[in-house]
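A.,

Following up on our hallway conversation. Structure tokens first:
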């Protein structure tokens, strides 16, 4: 996928805002508060550090998260109609990789200063000034930091959204709740779509 234009980035921000406005008030209020603080990071962060992966450009995270949200709704309608209301699917799609913004103070991905690495497609490097956490754990950390309450099923769906690609998720193997599987499949399919 090619880089986003400023118009595309602004359109993505508008779409995210509309989806958040559709959340029930108990969820909309803390999410809006969180986005007042981290919204620019969310809308401009890359989704990955390497060109061969997905969304390795400014705005890649937001663009990827919107694609995951669309895929999640389609999968849910097809495979598990009525499993969860759209606002839950929208929330999970938008938040599944929230940890890629960083810690809320410092970004996770910073431009790679090495010409050699950039020429090899490693456009960003992981910021060494923030504490290490797997992306899913950082996502859950940020949500609790902003007092965004999750149901147990939402927690697990976000925790294991990377599926069995994450070693710590292996204990969930063959025990994944339906919602967690849908989030993972939507994410995995979005990554494939973004490489076309």
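Then the amino acids I'd put at each of the 196 positions:
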């Amino acid at each position: 996928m090619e880089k986003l234009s400023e118009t595309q980035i602004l359109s993505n921000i508008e779409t995210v805002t509309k989806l958040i406005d559709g959340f029930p008030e108990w969820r909309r209020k803390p999410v809006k508060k969180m986005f007042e603080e981290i919204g620019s990071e969310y809308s401009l962060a890359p989704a990955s550090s390497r060109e061969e992966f997905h969304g390795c450009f400014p705005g890649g995270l937001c663009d990827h998260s919107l694609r995951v949200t669309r895929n999640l709704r389609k999968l849910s309608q097809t495979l598990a109609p009525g499993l969860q209301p759209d606002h839950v699917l929208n929330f999970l799609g938008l938040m599944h990789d929230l940890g890629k913004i960083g810690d809320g103070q410092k970004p996770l991905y910073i431009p790679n200063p090495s010409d050699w690495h950039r020429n090899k497609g490693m456009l960003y490097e992981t910021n060494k000034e923030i504490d290490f956490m797997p992306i899913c754990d950082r996502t859950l950390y940020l949500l609790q930091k902003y007092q965004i309450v999750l149901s147990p099923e939402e927690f697990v769906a976000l925790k294991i959204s990377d599926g069995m690609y994450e070693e710590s998720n292996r204990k969930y193997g063959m025990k994944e709740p339906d919602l967690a599987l849908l989030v993972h499949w939507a994410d995995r399919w979005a990554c494939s779509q973004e490489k076309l």
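Residues 6-194 form a domain with the Hypothetical protein af1432 fold (CATH 1.10.3210). Curious whether your intuition agrees with the design.

B.
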